[in-house]
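Researcher: Before we compare anything, I want clean individual predictions. No alignment, no superposition, just each chain on its own. First chain goes here; please echo the sequence and then give the structure tokens.
Model: Echoing the first chain and its structure:
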Amino acid sequence: MTGALNGLKVLDFSTLLPGPFASMYLADLGAEVIHIESPTRPDLIRLFPPYANGQATSHSYLNRNKQSIALDLKQPENIERIKQKIAEFDIVIEQFRPGVMQRLGLDYATLAKLNPRLIYCSITGYGQTGEYKDRAGHDINYVAISGIAGHCGRAESGPPPMGIQMADVAGGSLHALVGILAAVVERQHSGLGQYLDISMTDCVASLNSMAAAASLAGQVSQQPEQELLNGGSFYDYYQTQDGRYLAVASLEPQFLSGLAAVLDLPILLEKAASTETHDRQLVKQALTEKIRQKTWAEWRHIFQALDVCVEPVLSLEEALDSPLAEQRGWVVQVPLHPGSKETEEQLACPIKFSRSQSRYQFIGQKLGEGQWE
């Protein structure tokens, strides 16, 4: 079996997380990725601890299957080298602030003249237009300004800092992938490439989905702990006797009936569907008191045999070592170098095909270790 994207060639100028995550997926699925890095200003992802096998684990993961080429883009000869080779490439990914690639002479307008089939994707915090386009930001800023943080978390304690980079990955990386692959399909008909302007804030704002649909229709003002799915109903996390948590999501009648029966809580059937704040509070209080009566392990054993949409909250280590992770292949062994018997455990590409296959040739390379013929 071969990769679904075999034959595509990508020139990646991005750093940190959004662009590299997107180009890693492209590489996993078979595309050839040439990662251009500065020889004097290392990608910060190379410096973030922890480390394994002599380098940062995040770098080893995000840059697997890619050739690392060290080029100083301030040197005119290197710009000319890229221009001479650009006809070989299908896709360019860059993550500089607006205007940087134009100053370097590597902007879409310039490179498209040399390769009209080129698909060029720019990933930025706030996009290429608008008053925010030159503003600095990080994931938490994009989540804040997108409206997501404003209706998440607890009414008293406010929005939580997430353990994942929602705007970087779900916003920037995955939307960039959708756009790039859509442009590849469109090119089959037009014969032409095009420019993609991916704003992490634009994209993460779209994840508001159902909440935004309601708000734009003028139906509700989204506030923390007031809606069905943001803590305003019994759909929530509940602490066990030993301080751990269960996730309870028994929304549909058949699941709610099963939950009410196993917990012996008829109030669930009487008031869980109510939109009255007082009723919802009574239901949550009843669930809180009941679930605190047993340990996490005891509840896990009980609910494992039931199909009522209740699951234990796992630590990351527990999740990666779970039967589900093994059955679904969440973790793979990636060679340290092409053909090496030494490997490093990494998250697998989660996309499963019936014919194509993801590849895991080697972990992220040392700076400049790659080859670019």
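Researcher: Okay. Second chain, same rules.
Model: Second chain and its structure:
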Amino acid sequence: MRIKYTISVVFFVTLVIIEKENNIISRVSDKLALKQTPQTPLQPSGSSHILPKNNGSLISFGKMDSAFMLMKRRLENYSEHQGLVTRGRKHILLLATTRTGSSFVGEFFNQQGDNMFFLFEPLWHVEKMLTLETGGTNATASAKAYRDVLQKLFLCDFSLLERFIEPLPVDHITPNLFRRESSSSLCEESVCSPIVKGVFERYRCKTRRCGPLNLTMASQSCLQKEHRAIKSVRVRQLETLRPLAEDPRLDVRFIQLVRDPRAVLASRMVAFAAKYKNWKQWAMDGDVPIDDDEVRKLKGNCDNIRMSAEIGLKQPPWLRRRYMLVRYEDIARFPMRKATEMYRFAGIPFTPQVKSWILKNTQASKEASGVYSTQKNSSEQVEKWRFSLPFKIAQVVQRVCGPTLKLFGYKFVSSEEMLTNKSISLIEDKVFNFS
């Protein structure tokens, strides 16, 4: 009799604890809920209370287990509805630097289809506003701004980003969002507002004729998507994004894309000729000054990339199962394999639509000698920099970015002949654990 009485007391105490957890979650979620996205109160199905039988007899263990499972599901559903838990929804942040192939890799998620809300470089506006007259940015201020804007965007809240768009949006409408056309989510019919006569949108959608972007409509579309992804080349240190990983409303996966620093520099010298005119001059006829600002900047960039990767690869508790390192060279050589790995890591289905896009955009064109394989053609593209970057410039990169090259598995070159010898690969076979 005493045992039965004890079981009954434990059961009721458990129910009280669960109810208190419900109340705690409710209070916390009220503070976390977005002001601009009110939610409809949850309407639980079935009975709202689990009680003993009216005749006072004890519930059987089987029924007790069913009761606990029902209460557990109600608690989980309630938590999810209030924004504390987003079961199944993933938030992917693709981190890179300029000229690493991030636009190409970003398309892996942009092409996902109707269940993905993708944004292309929204932090461009933040960087532009925070840029100092000297051309640089305050690292501390920009890092906090980047983090806060990303957090809001993952929650489908565009209000903070609006403050950085120039000129300021009027009634949440702007024709000035950077590279809007690179986000299929912002060019869907549901986000396509009427054409406004006399208003020019520089980055207008290519798939359909739309008016200026209505950020309220964009927010509504975002909320309806199952997953959300953002591509950015502006975050300097992974550590600054720790609050995103620890936010209970988010389930963030960080994918850090890296590339051989020598290849990155060679690409930047072509793409940003005006900014890299000193390097171009040194490449033609001069020795590279050891203490030049441009060399120090190169070293700083390499160090930031390496330190972020070192943190990620160590898998601290806040990054466990949330960080993946991928080399651009591996994606270019094995696009389908690496895309499959990224999707598996992100925890979202790899759709036929994405596979089709990858095949279409990585297959070699037909030549007189026949059709080249994807791997062979991509390998040629990956190492084209070896024939445009002078050996003396490669030596400078190796000197200031040596630890970065070693960490990511890029081989050093010791002579002009080795640099331009196609039979010698400069990419080590290396596996980066991220599970």
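Researcher: What stands out in the second chain?
Model: The chain has 18 helices and nine strands. Additionally, Strands lie at 91-95, 116-120, 173-174, 213-214, 227-232, 252-258, 323-327, 366-367, 370-371.
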